[in-house]
Design a protein that fits this description.
alpha/beta; Aspartate Aminotransferase, domain 2; Aspartate Aminotransferase, domain 1; 2 domains; 7-stranded mixed β-sheet; 5-stranded antiparallel β-sheet; 18 strands; 38% helix; binds pyridoxal-5'-phosphate; pyridoxal phosphate binding; Taurine-pyruvate aminotransferase
Length: 464
Amino acid sequence: MDGALTQNDRSHVVDADKAHVWHHLVQHKPFETTDPNIIVEGKGMRVWNQTGKEHLDAVSGGVWTVNVGYGRERIAKAVYNQLIKLNYFAGAAGSVPGALFAEKLISKMPGQSRVYYCNSGSEANEKAFKMVRQIAHKRYGGKKHKILFRDRDYHGTTIGCLSAGGQDERNAQYGPFAPGFVRVPHCLEYRRHEQDGAPQDNYGEWAADQIEKVILAEGPDTVGALCLEPVTAGGGVIAAPDGYWPRVQEICRKYDILLHIDEVVCGVGRTGTHWFGYQHYGVQPDMVTMAKGVASGYAAIACLTTTEAVFDMFKDDADDPMNYFRDISTFGGCTAGPAAALENMAIIEDEGLLENTLVMGEYMTGKLHALAEKHAVIGDVRGKGLFLGAELVTDRETREPVEEARVKAVVADCMKQGVIIGATNRSVPGKNNTLCYSPALIATKDDIDQIVEATDAALGRVFG
Ligand SMILES: Cc1ncc(COP(=O)(O)O)c(C=O)c1O
């Protein structure tokens, strides 16, 4: 690390942080006696904190974001060059990187054709919800306005997104929520024993059929859209089993329901082989939202893409002053986002990172399965590409989740060893028991070995 802080700088920064910064998702009481972690510098997959301690980051910036790794001068230069030429203009006008990134993005998403820019995953999902509602008003007298979301999925932090939130601990104490959002069951086969009537065989199809049951109970003419994560992230790293997605697509078509896929975590390479998670399953969404990995955190950018058919619904009567998408995103007009996103995508292509993610994802899955042979506390290993989870249980027969405090102890032990891993956190009540891994798409076998060895040592110390 060459940007090391001097002793004086360091204590000033720590004091300023402790006095004034309100960190996300953190209880601050402990900071009365300990210091927060302040990340000072990053390179590749490694970051250094205020004490100069090196960490291998197995969660891409904590929340699955820095897909191409830290310290990418190519992106920094592209952003710099763009900012000195034009930093901003509101989205009613176009920009050079906005047009070029839209073209490039759509070339990776056959079936999609339009890109709406904004600046966070939550905001992109809100836009999609607003489109569904506006379509309901324009075409169905407001009736087909309900939005289905899935148990254990998360779509963002705003009240609208929490209304579509399938993680009760995220939602607790923030209600009341917006009406017209309806929950459908999860598709986590490992926990099918907790779902009434779930079969041993063809669980995927059965799980999708539960969505149809909800639609029929609500009335198909009231349901406008179904919003799903391609691989549930914070709800436990859940990839739906075979048979699920074709049935989901069929159900959406049958009842004229828009399929909205939330690729905020999976989008832009995270699951390997394909650019987007849904592309593994051959589904054709009507709307796709994305954020984190779009520019790997080098600039804030989120996108909502739609098919041309959805886009057409907002321009079919140009004489009606209300008949277009009357939405505003001030920072959707920041040019740094698409400038960074263009370079981010070019890096993934130039360095073959979709392939690396496939290969390293398989390698890491194998390593985690081997770890499960050693530690009975690992009940399930799952995920896709470099987006993996290990669910911890007290007993493999009953699948009773381990106490959350012990999951946290594993994460803390890894941190002490200089390896940052994650765990499901304030998500599903009693089920915050999945270790999460999402290393950058540049991960090597050595990096993965180090991550798995740290987990091995931590599990040994915490569970014996
Ligand atoms: C699947 C998913 N959707 C949406 C969001 C919200 O994104 P943001 O935090 O950028 O608003 C997240 C954030 O973790 C997410 O995991």
